[in-house]
Specification:
about 160 residues; alpha+beta; Heat Shock Protein 90; 6-stranded antiparallel sheet; 3 helices; about 30% strand
Length: about 160
């Protein structure tokens, strides 16, 4: 018996320029299936559409890629429980000085403060919390909605 193939990646991408006081802003909107096999392609697509080659330095672009991948994995695995009937909404906005990415799953949410950083020896083998720890150290600002099923990550241009 062979394993089922991953769901084909069908993204609805909306990219538009929105004039602001500080210049044009690019907005990208994606609806992503709850399939971890899609994460790499989604990250590539977001970074390509939101951060041209010169907008972020190599290190900051790497930080953004890892943060997006971790947030998507959390949304798909923990939030949507890999339920393929659910999807993850991704909204990205590139401004003159920052990129902001909001990832929202269809799960019940969680309490972000309930997860202590996995830095103590007894916490290193825990099954959860490492992704949030990474995200918090890779981007400049992290916020969650009240329900706990949406993360907003901001990375400033330096």
């Amino acid at each position: 018996m062979t394993a089922p193939l991953p769901a084909s990646l069908q993204l609805c991408v909306r990219r538009r320029r929105v004039p602001t006081a500080s210049g044009a802003t690019i907005q990208v909107s994606l609806r992503v299936p709850s399939d971890v096999a899609c994460i790499e392609e989604v990250v590539d697509l977001l970074v390509r559409h939101c951060c041209g080659d010169s907008w972020l330095c190599r290190k900051r672009r790497f930080n953004l890629r890892v943060a997006i991948a971790e947030a998507l994995a959390n949304a798909i695995v923990a939030g949507n429980q890999e339920d393929r009937s659910k999807s993850v909404q991704v909204e990205a906005e590139l401004g003159a000085e920052q990129v902001r990415v909001v990832i929202t799953d269809q799960g019940t949410g969680f309490t972000p403060t309930a997860y202590a950083p996995p830095t103590l020896p007894e916490d290193l083998e825990r099954d959860n919390g490492r992704g949030l720890f990474l995200i918090r150290h890779l981007v400049d600002d992290v916020r969650f909605n009240a329900q706990g099923n949406s993360i907003c990550m901001t990375l400033r241009r330096r």
